[in-house]
Design a protein that fits this description.
By secondary structure, this protein is of the alpha/beta class. Helix content is 30%, strand content 18%. It has 2 domains: 86 residues, Orthogonal Bundle (Arc Repressor Mutant, subunit A); 38 residues.
Length: 135
């Protein structure tokens, strides 16, 4: 029986639900699912310029596990770019730091500080917000 997968720490969910290739008329192609932990690995290694050891500590996984997550994310992005496929972000095996909300009107993702008493979207002031489920 394999070991249970440890949840990977993600600071914030991706700020997008997906990306679609511009100028491609073939909408029937299968999309590529980019997991939250894969997005976090790309962000930490390529955007924040952390080495794999530092990034693995932030995500709460071993360095080899981080390398596998990062490699999977790179392959998925390359696959989507070369074959002009849509990229969608999906939850995966992640644990979000804190409670995150999704606005039903403007689709913004945000947290609500403890000192705020009203639960409204900080961007459009909508009351149509829902908690992003963590498994």
């Amino acid at each position: 029986m394999p070991r249970r997968k440890r949840l990977r720490k993600v600071v914030a969910p991706p700020g997008f639900k997906g990306y679609r290739p511009y100028g491609n008329a073939q909408h029937k192609k299968q999309f590529v699912e980019l997991l939250y932990e894969e997005y976090e690995a790309i962000k930490l290694a390529d955007y924040d310029l952390l080495n794999h050891l530092e990034a693995s500590k932030l995500m709460g996984v071993s360095r080899p596990t981080f390398a596998r997550i990062y490699e999977s994310a790179r392959r998925k992005l390359a696959h989507a770019l070369v074959e002009t496929r849509e990229i969608r972000s999906v939850f995966g095996n992640a644990q979000l730091d804190g409670t995150w909300y999704l606005c039903g009107d403007c689709h913004a993702r945000f947290t609500i500080p403890v000192q705020m008493t009203d639960h409204v979207c900080p961007i459009c002031r909508s009351l149509e917000i829902e908690i992003i489920k963590t498994k």
